[in-house]
Amino acid sequence: MPPAVPSSLRGGSGRRIEATRPPRHEPRLLSSLAPEFAAELVALLSARGEPNLARSITTLPVVELCRCSDPRCASFYTIPGFAANWRWPQGGSTLDLDASAGTIRVDTAGGQIVSVEVLDRPQLAKTLQATGGIESGLAEDNRLHRKG
């Protein structure tokens, strides 16, 4: 077990220094941020024959938004982007879903959704961008938008 971190320390001049930690944000669930889109994902994944992935949507977090330069983008990661990019070469796959509007692709690795690629859904983009507490990736990082 790691040693406990003291909540206060003594500075070089003997004065007390309080240790502060940045606040941790719990990831927000897609089902609470964009319930209509979450329901659509459930339906699309079920229709595609992916019942396990469909069931996971109710607890699917939105951890990090894609920050590519494409104004049509509303893509997001469900695990930290660096972890998704690390896991992808270890068996990642993309499911192209038959969306009624725009483009929706679900990226999976190890049977888990790691990111959702969404294009041409301006309302979803606005909803996700307006939500505080979600990390943004690098501005020029467009690894979510793989060719092929």
Written description of the protein model:
The structure is a single chain. The protein is of the alpha+beta class. The protein has one domain (26-133). 26% of the residues lie in helices and 24% in strands. The protein has five helices and ten strands. It has helices at residues 30-33, 35-47, 51-56, 81-87, 122-129, and strands spanning 8-10, 16-18, 28-29, 61-62, 64-65, 76-77, 93-97, 103-109, 112-119, 135-136. The strands form three sheets. It has a six-stranded mixed sheet with strand order 7-8-9-6-5-10, sandwiched between helices. It has a two-stranded antiparallel sheet with strand order 1-2. Strands 3-4 form a two-stranded antiparallel ribbon. Residues 1-10 and 137-142 have low confidence and may be disordered.
Biggest sheet character: 6 strands, mixed
Helical content class: 25-40%
* Backbone shape: globular
Into how many domains do the coordinates divide?
1
The span between the termini is 46 Å
Order of helices and strands: EEEHHHEEEHEEEHE
Helix count, per DSSP?
Answer: 5
Main β-sheet, spatial strand arrangement:
7-8-9-6-5-10
